[in-house]
Amino acid sequence: MNLQQQLGEQNSLLRLREQNIHLNQTLNELSSGLMDQVMTINGLSVIRGREVREKSQAVLQESETRVDSIVSASLLVCVIVCIALALLSIIITRFVTKPLYKISAAMKDIAGGDGDLTKRLNVTGVQEATELSAHFNHFAERLQTTIQAVSRVADMLRESVTSTTGLYRAG
Q: For labelling, which of 22, 37, 40, 149 has a CA lying 20 to 30 Å from the CA of 168?
């Protein structure tokens, strides 16, 4: 080979080498730029991750606060309903028992003392109490009628015994 050819080949190799060095420099610059972008994305990802965690914690805390307020409101409503039911049961109990106490007192009054069968119970109040009063009044009327009839028969018998005794003594 001649010198010129050898020099041409060396120049070609030098150019190739220069191109290779230039490509390596460009590749290094691009790699460095790409690494900078990766680092920037990584930093943004970390920041965004923190933001998401903070938002999640805020939402969780808000949810827990809402749940606590709902539970508190529910408990308050339960207490109010229980108190209302207790008061309602007391009112209903008094509404039912008051007429029964009146009937009991009136029957005690009739049974004690003279046994006055002319007294009658008030027919007012709860249906059961009014029925009881009406039935007792009906019983008292029948008993009064029976006692009056027995009293009339006793009077007639007394008159009959008196007149028979008078006849016996006279005779």
A: 149
Q: What is the dihedral of CA 109, 111, 115, 118, to 10 degrees?
A: 60
- Single pTM value for the model: 0.47
If you average pLDDT over residues 102-116, what whole number do you get?
A: 75
Alpha carbon distance 22, 53 (integer Å): 46
Helix axes 3-111, 127-170, angle to 10 degrees: 10
Close Cβ partners of 125 (under 8 Å, ≥ 6 residues apart):
98, 99, 102, 133
* Element holding 82 (H helix, E strand): helix 3-111
Residues 160 and 171: their CA atoms lie apart, in Å, by: 16
Backbone angles phi, psi at 2, to 5 degrees: -95, 170
**Among 103, 142, 141, which Cα is nearest to 124's?**
103
Q: What is the predicted pLDDT for the residue at 50? A: 95
What's the CA gap between 60 and 71, in Å, rounded? 16
Q: What is the CA radius of gyration of the chain?
A: 58
Pairwise CA distance, residues 133 & 136, whole Å: 5
